[in-house]
Amino acid sequence: MGAVLPLLALRAFVETGRCGSLKAAAEAMGVTPGAVSQQLKLLVERTGVNLFVRNRHGVSLSPAGAQVYPALLRAFDTIQDSMAVLEAINGRQTLTISTVPSFAASWLVPRLGHFTEKHPDIEIRVEASSALVDLRRDRIDVAIRHGLGQYPGLVSRHLASPVFLPVACPRLLADGPRIRTPKDCLKYPLLQDSDRSDWRLWFKALGMAYDPRIERGPAFDDDVLLIRAAEAGQGIAMVRDVYVQAEVASGRLSIAFDHAWPTEFAYYAVTLPRVDEKPAVASFLSWLQSEAQVDRSSF
């Protein structure tokens, strides 16, 4: 009979290699960093091979560790997928969806009843956060984000391209420098969304090189607060067009720079590779894209 495989130690190795630090690996495993360190020590003692080298950011795989890491990573991912299949055989399936709070509240959650009616055997769990997530580590089935669709190692599906407008108080624009190009907006304070991404992505989609001024300025968790700050003359806000129709029509706000919206700046459904082969995930993605096609104006 062969020796018992040190599965816990091997998983500690895989998670540390995936995360690049003992602390992050411990969080993924639900244990302490000390426990991860102990398991890695046991694995080194058993094999006689150093698996990691320390660097200023944490740890990285040694040449020997890098040699076996890909196969072990695939093995543990296969185990996790198999467990999900077993758990779904006699029970309801649960999908975890991650998205930003504004999208969850204004679009996704009000429509989830439509999905449940069509798929009563699939439960949806929504995690609303502006923070970036690691789909594998955090066990997220589908992430819905707005951006440019560039997510290395992941599969993204375009949902819809909402139009955002740079708007400001007319008096602020009249008294300040003239805006002829997108870069001229940087001559004014930029009013930011909660994760300071909209201005950065807008400039990037228009081909403008990164400038640290893009992410400066006060940030607001709510679009209403962002609009009120713009009305008060505090700077230029990047806001969804449907949210400022009344303000622009009444003259309380003006469009600072009227430019066609870059369609690549859009909402995307993002998954790990091959995750869409799971029936429940495939059903949700199909429903999500259908809803987006039917009601693009609400994004």
From TrEMBL:
Recorded GO terms, molecular function? DNA-binding transcription factor activity; sequence-specific DNA binding
Q: Which UniProt keyword terms apply here?
A: DNA-binding, Transcription, Transcription regulation
Question: DNA-binding among the record's keywords?
Answer: yes
Gene3D superfamilies per UniProt: Periplasmic binding protein-like II, Winged helix-like DNA-binding domain superfamily/Winged helix DNA-binding domain
One Pfam family, please name it. Answer: HTH_1
GO biological process terms, semicolon-separated: DNA-templated transcription
- Alphabetized PROSITE patterns for the sequence: HTH_LYSR
Q: Which domain of life is it from?
A: Bacteria
What SUPFAM superfamilies does UniProt report for this protein, alphabetically? Periplasmic binding protein-like II, Winged helix' DNA-binding domain
Q: Which residues form the HTH lysR-type domain?
A: 5-62
Similarity field: Belongs to the LysR transcriptional regulatory family.
Q: What is this protein called?
A: Transcriptional regulator
Q: Which species is this record about?
A: Stenotrophomonas humi
